[in-house]
Amino acid sequence: MTHSNGITDARLQLPFWLWPLAVIIGWLIAAASLSYAPGGRLNVLWLWWLWAGIPLLGTLVAAGAAAFGRDRPWLFRWGHKTLHWYPKPGQRWHMLIGLQSFWLLLGLGMILGFLTLLLFSDLAFGWSSTLLDGDQSPLRLLQWLAAPWAWFWSAAVPDAALLDATRYVRIDPRASGTERAGDWWPFLMASLLFYNLVPRALLAVVGVIRLRQLNAQSPGPAIRGTSQGGGARLAPVAASPLRAWDGALVINWERHQQGQPTLGGELWSDDELQLEALLAKPPSAVLWQVPANRSPVGELADLVAQVRNTGVARQGLRAIVDAQTQPERHLASWRQFAGAQQLQWVTE
Fold this sequence. Notes:
- The chain is an alpha/beta fold.
- The chain is built from nine helices and eight strands.
- The strands form two sheets. The chain has a six-stranded parallel sheet with strand order 3-8-7-6-4-5, with helices on one face. The chain has a two-stranded parallel ribbon with strand order 1-2.
- α9 links the parallel β7 and β8 (344-347).
- The radius of gyration is 28 Å and the shape is elongated.
């Protein structure tokens, strides 16, 4: 598994069967949300929030996470269980492209479901409010939401007459009229397109462009880590006895040792700040101690490079073995990692 910015991980690829499933799920969401309530009207405000408002917020959150995220995603810190992986910028954008493609297909399924029900059923839309009285309506808000398509699709812009004709008041017998109850569909269709599909498509395009930029900036396919049992040839690595590292700065990665600094915690930004503090006075050498039964990750390679950039030329790697360590699997991965990062292999 590579963790460099420009190289994608095969495990980030979504399985093929998710793509048709996304269309089916979208169709079912549309069919379920267009099921009639006991009042006999489909609440157009709730439909807009479900079909357009929530997807738009999701797109904005995804864009922020891909562009500015540095720490381990919350999904990897669920409860007390953590996955020891910090996705790098290239991997964040790669995941974003895949997820946006999935949501695009789901949105396409929603449009197909909506068109199906428009064709084979008589949908009646309406709106209601407990707080707004008869002289108030969300007209200004809805017209503001319809601004992106108002200049070419006037039928999809709600007007005062439509809101007045489709307001549902439970105790008002006059609210039973349905002459214009179907005229909301262009607004909902345009909202699906402009607030659901278009932002996700734009974000996916931005992700592709950004990923290509990161690929272009990548120095090359240098291996920063290896998958377990990958069968790759071991890189040549110099061995060094532990006694030769007396006086070196010992840093533990994802393991705790009394009196020694530990990196690889919850937040990647905290690791960087802690390492900067440790290197405020550059040591003569740095010895990394890692649990042998963990897999090498690119984040450790970045920290090794950060140490090297401060002028520390001598760095070593010591894999701490335990009863679960498999030499042909775990130690082989760490030896290859040490060779790729030009680290000395430290033995007892």
